[in-house]
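>> received
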Amino acid sequence: DLDQLANVSTARLVFSGHLFVPELTYTIQLAVAARDFRDGAVSPIFDAYLDWKGHRDASVRVGQFFVPFDRLRTIREWALQTADRPQPITELNLDRDVGVMLYSESFLGDRSPFAYRLGAFGGKGTNLTRGSTPGGLLVGRLELRPLGPIDDDVEGDLARRKKPALALGVGFAHDFRTDRLRATTGPNFVGGTTSYTYVATDLVFKWYGFAFQAEYLQRRSSKSAIRSVDDEGAEVLEYPQSGRGYVLQASYVFDPPIELVARIAQLWAIGREDAEFYARTQDRGDELAVGTNYYFSGHKLKVQADWIARMPRGYELAHADHLVHVQIDATF
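>> returned
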């Protein structure tokens, strides 16, 4: 079957500035496209936080923002090379939450290669309107940039840098007693809670227009099933989703600014308790993507086209679902 959709897939309004002193800044991001209202969202607020950069080694952010767990999920939509993120990222990330983060971009020195992020969050996601079982999310991330500064929060090497740049990162998180299927996103469990442990490692490399990024993620639930009883006394079983996956993505920017990009990714279920999740990863867990971008003004104004195929194990292209995007991406 062939379907067609023409729409405004993403529309964001961002307000930012400083309060009283330059070191204290604020950011508010509103999502106003229809696709942004997921998981029954009732508010357009994506980000709403204060940032205090009063010390090089210990800055503080408080509010609602990206959980500082992995690299590829925390890259903003306007800085992506393809229209859709790969499946392992959309499935295994921690998205946004409400909390506080202590961090440094250059720990113990202005030219230091080390960065860190430590956070404590509510653990249930964004824009909540009701209370739930007490819990919380703790997260830590370490980053190393051994070859000097790198714009690892932007995909591709549009600057065609003459010196190689490398960023390495590892992240760990534990979400205690969450009642959501994917920790901070997804539907709510009706019969109880589970705890999730997350691990991520990632790499970004850029040199002379070539860019390569890789990431591995894993999520494990403390329970294989959540058991409860409904109003009629019948047992109800709900299944948390444990999984793992990786992404490899490479690109090259020509001059004039035409870019080619290619990606492979795989997503696996850990265990077979959730039959639907296991079947989905078996039937559509392998992913291939290729695309091209023309940059009029860097990532701020570009035309993108890509083809994404999701298929059964072994990259069985003959049985794949195919998705083609053509889009204009403008940020102003």
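>> The first helix runs from residue 87 to 92.
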